[in-house]
Amino acid sequence: MKMWSGRFRQPLNPEFENWQRSFEFDCRLLECELEASAAHARALEKTGVLSADELAKVLDGLEQIGERVADSAELLNDPEAEDIHHFVEKQLVGLIGDVGYKLHSGRSRNEQIATDLRLYTRAACDEIGAALNNLAETLLDRAEQAGNAVIPAYTHMQRAEPVLVAHWLLAYVEMLLRDIERLEDCRKRLNVCPLGSGAVTGSTLPLDRELMSSELGFEGPTANSIDATSDRDFALEFVNALSLLALHLSRWAEEMLLFSTQEYGFIHLPEAYSTGSSAMPQKMNGDLLELVRGKAARVIGDATSLLISLKGLPLAYNKDLQETQEPLFHATETVVSLLPLVTGWMQSVHFNFERMQNAAQTGYMNAFAAATYLVRKGVSFRIAHGQIGKAVRLALDKQCELQGLRLDDLHAIDNHFADDFYDFVKLEKVLAIHEVPGGTAPARVQQAIITARKKLSSACEEAHAHA
Q1: Measuring CA to CA, which residue among 255, 128, 111 is closest to residue 184?
Q2: What is the CATH number of the domain that holds 378?
Q3: Active site residue: 277, 380, 457, 458, which one?
Q4: 156 is an active site residue
Q5: Of 73, 105, 137, which residue is a domain's last?
Q6: What digits encode the pLDDT tens for the residues 196-253?
Q7: What is the pTM of this model?
């Protein structure tokens, strides 16, 4: 029996009926639906709609539904169920009889789906936050293991200055820390309970909304029934956060792909996360990296789909909102599945520190340090910049690095050069002069690792507080 069929004389067109069903994808919300229904049942008992005995039957029936589906997912192959709410009602009535129909007293599917989606998104924030923490910890471990190894930093895809490998990896940690913070912030904002909002104007029964909110772990009830049943900001905010995360992972994947090429040779792809060519026996392809890059586009597409679905909807609930579920589910499941793989990849990848070190000492990447040398001798930076530019041009002509120029060559450019210049532009000195917070000086990088671990630990503690 349909949940709404009393007013209708004719049955639905069979093709339309099948086409408009959401059960195929909203069956993912079963656990959320059972949890929310149990909270609603307890509130109904307090109003006298359910007796204590009926409440016990309803709660037992809801528990049985969860157990039966866990034992056999085939139960979800229900061609009659219109959505997850209809499915649970059907199953409940089948288990405990007509008292199961009482559960829908004082509520609407509009508030049910709004509640289920909040529960789903809240759980996803927690799961993805934990996976991000693991990935960030792995990056920090690899940063510590790298010690004082050096790699070129790039701007405009051209070698710029040498940096510690640890400093390079910490850049990705900073991205992930922002992703963790965004998810935590999103979680706080979504953590209010729509139950009791009815279809649009609030329940017709004096339900204890504070009780239902508390039982479901929400901070409190939503403030406005119209907004509560039509709001999907939380889903959009969450998927937008995932799209930024996916963008960060895509940038990481692109850089790792570049650095794994023979032209760079900075890393060796881990075989466990790579594949070969069906035609060329020598090939090893970074398929995990390429798929991370590709799946990022789909997650970003999910955020766009949500925006466009919502942009023209009047208040309150509209059937269009059904279309916001699949982008939410897809973005969540994509990110949940790829984060452990990215973590495993980072744990397995081999860095070619020797190749990195050699690359970091060629291409005049100590030129900025050389200009700083003149500045410390009292030359204005703009003049120093020009003088070092001349020195680079001379070194290009002589096919050597700056430190390969003779002192008389340097004196011909600027009389502030002295013998101490050659020590100043050595790799370890070039790194050390970046002695500012956030810089690549070894002592600063070590402190940055400690600080990042503290931030992750704090985020982990906050996540445990939600459990």
Answers
A1: 128
A2: 1.10.40.30
A3: 277
A4: yes
A5: 105
A6: 999 999 999 999 999 999 999 999 999 999 999 999 999 999 999 999 999 999 999 9
A7: 0.95
